[in-house]
Design a protein that fits this description.
The complex is a heterodimer. Chain A is built from twelve helices and ten strands. By secondary structure, chain A is of the alpha/beta class. In chain A, helix 3 crosses helix 4 and helix 4 crosses helix 6. By secondary structure, chain B is mainly alpha-helical. The chains are: A alpha/beta, B mainly alpha.
């Protein structure tokens, strides 16, 4: 087990009374791909920040690798190295003169040798799909928005986290940028063995890779299950002002019209196969 | 951690003081503060204190809130008192220990200065507590308008103030977010000596300035696309109007300040 939340409740001091998180219990294991969804203000971002010790919850315990980080005198820097957090619009945090220096900021804080830092920066840049030699000496402020975001994410990856939390990483990207980013997450999860927690409002993104979907509603965990089971709760999901992945929505429409297809499919390929096989059985095509 | 800073300490209440015209309130404040400097007896200060207490009562703001507002100047007040007690000479010797002496004049001037500072802060904080920042800028703009002839761009100044006030919470939020993002990359803003600490602020300040400039650009564009071209001929949604009660308040405070100046 990697992360465990026990009865976590959080209240922001400046907004007296409103509890952003209410009695949340979660266990996050190694090599999971978790989709975290919920409407705006449901506590997703707060949860993300609690998971790597940026926010100390008002009540409850956060246990990471057996260490309770809500206790005093815990080395939070080590926790934050293990659990990388990519904020919304991470490109707004870039500050150095060159891409290299900016990505090296995190490893530098870990007090690594310059050679190790260079290796990490190179690896991180190549992971996000930017050429090391081409980009290392450029100013991050002269890059395109998508490239800036990649550099910012590389800055977190250079910390070599075991868990990566991303808060709406695709917001404001063009379709190609979104595809590349989802490809990156797939690589991280499948090849690098990193546990990924993805916060997003795009159900397609959530459904595509997630092995587990957590739905937050007003600070409470409403659902915590496989995507198939969560997205089967059509009524409940819609009541939470969330949606279904488009493909699933289409399959639901087909089913409503009396054509019996499975509705727990989230990819275009899967849906095509399902529809074709059902049509074959009925000898229509 | 940055959210504890309270800017624009306005507290909304439905009181006579809140309803007064901002301009009148500013004028009254200036008047009363000038009067405060003419007072040269403790009787006068006592009278002034009574007036302040009466206004606090009328404004429906809790007395403790005003007292809490005095906390930041506590150091200044103590310093003034100590300096006067030990260094102002004259009058009989009250207390002596080797070369340190306290003389009567020192004690009296010290207490005098302290009362003056405390009353000054109490009265001015009453202004900011009962007037919203927007009303305040409107009032200042309107009072500065006659100075336009001397080349003072009153409405531009007021617009700048309004925008600055508007963006303080936004920038604080932004700073908080960037700080957290850098902390997630292992940045340390809390330990080390002062040089190290200020060096550690660079990862926070650079992105903050960049985003402030970006916001400024966006805002300028948005304002221009809605035909903003300076204060010339611009009308207001909420016109400031001087009503009877404003005149009464002004009249009373003129009387009071003349009266109190004789003490």
């Amino acid at each position: 087990m990697l992360i465990e939340l026990k009865n976590v409740t959080h209240v922001y001091e400046h907004e007296r009374g409103t509890r952003v998180l209410k009695n949340v219990n979660l266990e996050i294991r190694e090599n999971e791909f978790i989709g975290l969804i919920g409407h705006t203000g449901s506590g997703k971002s707060t949860l993300a920040q609690i998971l790597n010790g940026l926010i100390k919850p008002s009540e409850g315990n956060v246990i990471i690798d057996g260490i309770d980080i809500t206790k005093e005198k815990v080395n939070l820097q080590r926790i934050r190295q293990k659990i990388g957090l990519v904020f919304q619009y991470p490109e707004h945090q870039l500050f150095e003169e060159t891409v290299y220096k900016d990505i090296a900021f995190g490893p530098g804080n870990l007090e690594l040798d310059p050679e190790d830092i260079e290796i990490r920066v190179r690896e991180a840049l190549e992971l996000v799909g930017l050429n090391y030699e081409e980009f290392k000496n450029r100013s991050p402020f002269n890059l395109s928005g998508g490239q800036q975001r990649k550099v910012a994410i590389a800055g977190v990856l250079a910390m070599k986290p075991e868990v990566l939390i991303l808060d709406e990483p695709t917001a404001g990207l063009d379709p190609q940028g979104r595809r590349q980013l989802m490809g990156l997450l797939e690589t991280l999860y499948k090849k690098e063995g990193i546990t990924v927690i993805l916060i997003s409002h795009r159900m397609e993104e959530i459904a595509r890779l997630s092995t587990r979907v957590i739905v937050l509603c007003e600070g409470k965990v409403q659902f915590d299950d496989s995507p198939e089971k969560v997205f089967a709760e059509v009524e409940a999901i819609k009541k939470l002002s969330l949606g279904l992945p488009e493909i699933t929505e289409i399959l639901h429409c087909i089913k409503e019209r009396g054509f019996d297809v499975r509705t727990d499919i989230f990819t275009i390929d899967g849906a095509v196969k399902e529809i074709v096989s059902k049509l074959r059985r009925k000898d229509i095509c | 951690m940055l959210r504890n800073i309270n800017i624009g300490q306005y507290i909304a209440r439905d009181s006579i003081i809140h309803k007064l015209d901002a301009r009148i309130k500013i004028i009254i404040t200036i008047l009363m503060i000038t009067a405060l400097f003419f007072i040269d007896s403790f009787k006068g200060y006592f009278l002034f204190l009574l007036a302040v207490l009466f206004i606090i009562y009328l404004s429906q703001i809790s007395f403790m809130r005003i007292i809490r507002g005095l906390r930041p100047v506590l150091f200044l007040v103590l310093l003034t008192l100590i300096l006067h007690i030990f260094f102002t000479r004259g009058g009989e010797v009250i207390w002596q220990w080797r070369f340190i002496t306290i003389e009567k004049n020192g004690l009296i001037t010290g207490l005098f200065m302290v009362s003056r500072i405390l009353l000054l802060i109490m009265f001015t904080s009453l202004l900011t507590l009962t007037t919203s920042p927007l009303q305040l800028t409107d009032g200042i703009e309107s009072l500065l308008r006659p100075l336009k002839r001397f080349g003072i761009p009153a409405s531009e100044l007021a617009m700048m103030m309004t925008i600055a006030l508007r963006f303080i919470p936004t920038l604080l939020e932004e700073a908080d977010k960037i700080m957290k993002a850098q902390m997630a990359r292992g940045a340390d803003f809390e330990s080390g000596n002062i040089i190290r600490r200020s060096k550690n602020l660079i990862p926070l300040l650079v992105p903050l300035f960049i985003s402030a400039f970006r916001r400024a650009d966006d805002l300028a564009l948005a304002m221009e696309s809605r035909c903003y071209h300076g204060g010339e001929g611009r009308t207001k949604l909420h016109e400031l109007k001087v009503k009877t009660q404003d005149f009464i308040a002004l009249f009373i405070s003129i009387l009071f300040s003349i009266l109190v100046s004789f003490f």
